[in-house]
Structure prediction request, 188 residues.
Amino acid sequence: MSAEPRTTSPRHLPGPVVLLVAVAALVAGMALTVGGVAGGGFTGMMGRGGTGAGPMMGGAWGRTGPGTASEAAPGDAGFVAGTPSAPRVIRVTAGPGHAFTPSTITVKAGETVTFEVRTMGLSTHEFMVGPADAVAGDVAGTPEVADIGMMQTKSLTYTFSGPGPFAFACHATGHYEAGMQGTIVVVP
Ligand SMILES: [Cu+2]
Prediction:
């Protein structure tokens, strides 16, 4: 009896239920902390993602909320094309493994996009974007951010001029060959 009044909840939940909820919350919290690796998704992780990470991710990944430009792709309600002065932000996760999420990104012809690339998992990745042939060939001068370590985020802004095709890829040793590449779909 003495423990009951400590529960401040107005609803009378039986003790075991309260305990279960507490445990579930704890487990969920742990899962998020230990690893975005598990794939909780952007929304889930952003809520708590700030803990213990470097300043890089604090700002870039703190922007949450359903109305964020990056949530809407061309054709979606609420889509706003990026411009040089106000690029559309698209978040990309590199890893775990040799993969980008998403692996297909749709842009409007001519729009300017800032890719915020975050590494999940132990490998260090790179993010190159540009004309598909230049990206495939790792051609010098193709826009790229490199050395994106675990839980780090780096940004790259690119304007999709012309019809394409465009692509993105990671050219850390062996990664591209293992399939670490993505497609840019340009819509008029
Ligand atoms: Cu990689």
